[in-house]
Design goal:
The chain is α+β, with helices and mostly antiparallel strands. The protein folds into two domains: 80 residues, Methylated DNA-protein cysteine methyltransferase domain (Double Stranded RNA Binding Domain), CATH 3.30.160; 31 residues, no CATH class. The protein contains five helices and four strands; from the N terminus they run βββαβαααα. Strands 3-2-1-4 form a four-stranded mixed β-sheet, with helices on both faces. β1 and β2 form a beta hairpin. The radius of gyration is 13 Å and the shape is globular. The two termini are 26 Å apart.
């Protein structure tokens, strides 16, 4: 049975960012989108259909908002690697291994889709 995915939408300086969470950690994100509806549509396309609980989120929304605004270098979240494979996973793993700042690693991985 597949993991139950939940979501949270962050209103950042650059637009709405959607977070997709599984019981194992952060499963996916969206790039900043112009509207809440755009971000919501994208997280539901990734399989998340229920808002995440506050206890599941902790301070993740604040850290994502800071990251999207260029004010946070170390996101330090539990990543759920399920469903991330191939070249995209290799880019993220190498970025983490060499200590690439998280915002640069995420941008490189997004380009690896």
């Amino acid at each position: 049975m597949p993991d139950k995915l939940t979501f949270h939408l962050c209103d950042t300086e650059r637009g709405w960012v959607g977070l997709v969470l599984s019981p194992h950690g952060l499963r996916g994100t969206t790039l900043p989108r112009p509207s809440r509806e755009d971000a919501l549509r994208e997280v539901t396309e990734q399989g998340a259909d229920t808002p995440a609980s506050d206890s599941d989120l902790a301070d993740l929304p604040e850290r994502v908002c800071a990251l999207a605004s260029g004010r946070y270098e170390n996101l330090a979240v539990q990543v759920d690697w399920n469903g991330i494979s191939g070249f995209r996973r290799a880019v993220l793993e190498e970025a983490i291994r060499i200590g690439l700042p998280m915002k640069e690693a995420l941008l490189r991985a997004e380009g690896a889709l």
